[in-house]
Amino acid sequence: QGLPICTNTSLGASLLKCLISFFYICLERYSVVSLLLFCVLQGMHFCLVTIISRIFKDCRNNTVQLPLYGEVLTLSLGVVPFCTVFAILWAAYRHSSFAWIGQDILGICTMINTLQTERLPNIRVASVLLSAAFVYDIFWVFISPLVFHESVMIAVASGGVSGEAIPMLLRIPHFFDPLGGYAILCFGDIIYPGQLIAFSYRFDRAGKKGILNGYFLWLTVGYVVGLFLTYLVFFLMDGHGQPALMYLVPCTLGLIVVLGWIRGELPHLWNYGRRPENLVGEV
Questions:
Q1: For this UniProt entry, which segments traverse the membrane (predicted)?
Q2: pTM of the entire structure?
């Protein structure tokens, strides 16, 4: 059996991210527009439509016919202008001191949309994806300086010489640091472990597991621990950028493998969804 479609999409996204990192100097002038369109059409639009339709359930039934496109939700059409204006304003003021707020809102919406649409089917696929991301992150932070004379990942995140960073990360200012600067976290550091945590939640629900004997709580704690270790090493190394997945992958993927092995459920986690009986109760 081949890899599921959702996994092919994730691997494709990883490849695209790799290419963007490698050619960031050529792509940086287009990166803002690319993320802008992606967030408007898929991220922020998806989140707003979902939230509003859940609050006002009648909105789900109101549709309109568009020429050459077909039937769409009226709510969807109403949300598009707001998302467009929001994203354009952020792009126009992206170098302002408050631009991080808009960037984080757009980024969070994008990641929610990604986690909702791309789902890991089992630990077998998660191991391939997260292991590749683990090696990828370490290479571009620590090994790429030996090849390109600078850390490509850090240069992409900071914007390099031009200062026009690819906005595929969350930024929070160092409010109490007299030197200023931002704490940053790339989308991949949230999405890849997040897909595994989302899988653990679906697995727990399908197996009717409790909080303590399930996996979701422990993987969430593991993610927090991994993030803490990332920033701890960051400060111990005098602010040298760290590959967050180097800490997050062992604290999430490693944790679920160890827990599954101790509980005798590792084969079920590994092959989940591959046999008909495992599909019962799948969310």
A1: 32-56, 68-92, 127-146, 182-203, 215-237, 244-262
A2: 0.78
